[in-house]
Amino acid sequence: MKSLKNQLFLVNLGKRIVELRKKKGLSQRELCLRMDWDKPNLSVIENGKTSPSITSIKKIAEALEIPLKDLFNFEY
Fold this sequence. Notes:
mainly alpha; 434 Repressor (Amino-terminal Domain)
């Protein structure tokens, strides 16, 4: 079972991804096309429902054309 602190981290990470994606003017579909992913894979991350691998996080940052560290620029 995920601890509350871990769950809060995942939710905030997901919100940060949504924020950055929208700032770039991208829909989930468009971001998924950049990553060669299916939309449900991104959706569960954006909704804080899963703990993404570091490889997945790196792929998201690359598709958003941002430094990896920018994904973690939030407080929880």
